[in-house]
Amino acid sequence: MEYSTLQGKIIIPEYGRNVQSMVEYALTLTDKQERERCVEAIMQTMCNLFPYLRDEAQRHKMYDHLAIMSGFRLDIDFPYDRPEPDEMRYHPEHLPYNETPVKMRQYGRIVELMIASAIEEQDLSRKHELIVRIANRMKRNYLIWNKDDVEDESIVADIKRLSDDKLSCDFPEFAIAKKKTLLGQQETQKKEQKKGRKK
Questions:
Q1: How far apart are CA 199 and CA 195, in angstroms?
Q2: Poorest-pLDDT segment among 22-26, 81-85, 119-123
Q3: Long-range contacts of 4-9 (CB under 8 A, 24+ apart)
Q4: Do the beta carbons of residue 159 and residue 115 sit within 8 Å?
Q5: Helix axes 59-69, 32-49, angle to 10 degrees
């Protein structure tokens, strides 16, 4: 018995070693008609593994996969444009990563963006509503990532610090939700997400 680790690399693992071996066998066939018949049998096997590929619109993907598995050496009459090796070597551009430091990591970058948005808000009632939401978000983030409780006064002080004293919590409607309420919302959201996945 030969261990699979001693055998060649599987080029597209989703199809498995058997399909890879069938493609390698097809490459050894010298008669083109026989090779075409062999490829049809391979295509049927691939369709059995992935039934959605039976769709005519998806069929060109199987031919692309065959070409890739054969190292682009399979000599058959492709019904679609034959893929070129250079096309497969394309790598997407590197996405720039935001490396600006977060002032208070326990709250995260999104809270900083929310505070910047609240500073820009002109409507006073809307600004107050945003400050309350930011305070609740900050407390919730803190409680999620820390075992210790956090005092509401500490959240108020952090809002002033993060906003460079541009936001104030001194208005009648300001109130931060209790720990149980904030973490209860999180549990409710988790349950709803689980229900959504089951559907």
A1: 7
A2: 81-85
A3: none
A4: yes
A5: 120
